[in-house]
Amino acid sequence: LSIGLVAVTALIGVYAAFVEGGNVRTLCTTLLKYVIAAYVISNWTSLFSTMANDMLTVTQTIASTSSSTNDVFNASQQSLNTYYQNTGNGSILQWFNNATGQTILTILTALCAFLEAAAYAFFCLWYTFWGAILWGIGPIIIALLPGAGLGKYATAYLSKVGEWLLWPVLYAILGSLMTALNMNTATNLANASASNSQINAQVFIIETAVALGVCLLTIPFTAH
């Protein structure tokens, strides 16, 4: 379908060059776009996979140079779960005896850990879903490239692909910042406030979990 469509749009471009009084420049540009579009469409799956894999290689390189753990967010989530198991269950059991601020903070910690996990899962799902959409509609949109007045849609599409390819890179950069700021585990966050009370440490953990969740959800907007 895409190969047939690109032939039609190329023909439209040729007619446009003829209408302009035999504009040789427009004709040559149309033919060049046709060759490029036809090549990309014919090798679409391999080219798309190569672009995605190359950007993932950059992502893994950034992540490996900043932390021994490739996926800092996943490690952070696991540490939050461990931290809650070590500090939260006892406070929950004391709820019926004394509903203290510590218990409330423990509940907030659990909620924030859940929200960060939800943001992480949503980011992974949205990255995969949007990538599948871009891959699926790619040949049809690129087939519009040679057509006069239609090439802008193909250009806009390619810019969206570029944004999507940057998502994992921004993800890795954010993970590197977490490691550099010693914010990659709940233990590190608690130790950073060791001179303060346990309540202050929990508040710091809650704030960090919320901030990381927000950063994850805004990666697509940052790439844009």
Describe the structure using short key phrases.
224 residues, mainly alpha
Describe it.
The chain is an all-alpha fold and 224 residues long. It is 83% helix and 0% strand. It contains 9 helices and no strands. The chain has helices at 2-19, 24-42, 44-66, 72-93, 101-142, 151-180, 186-192, 198-217, 219-223. Helix 7 crosses helix 8 (198-217). The longest helix has 42 residues, at 101-142. The protein is elongated, with a radius of gyration of 25 Å. The two termini are 30 Å apart.
Distance between the termini: 30 Å
Q: What is the share of helical residues?
A: over 70%
The total of beta strands comes to 0
Structure classification = mainly alpha
Question: Treating each run of at least 4 consecutive H or I residues as one helix, how many helices?
Answer: 9
Uncertain runs are: none
Which term fits the overall shape? elongated
> Could you give the order of the helices and strands?
HHHHHHHHH
CA radius of gyration is: 25 Å
Arithmetic mean pLDDT: 78
- Beta-strand portion reads under 5%
Strand count, sense and barrel status of the largest sheet are: none
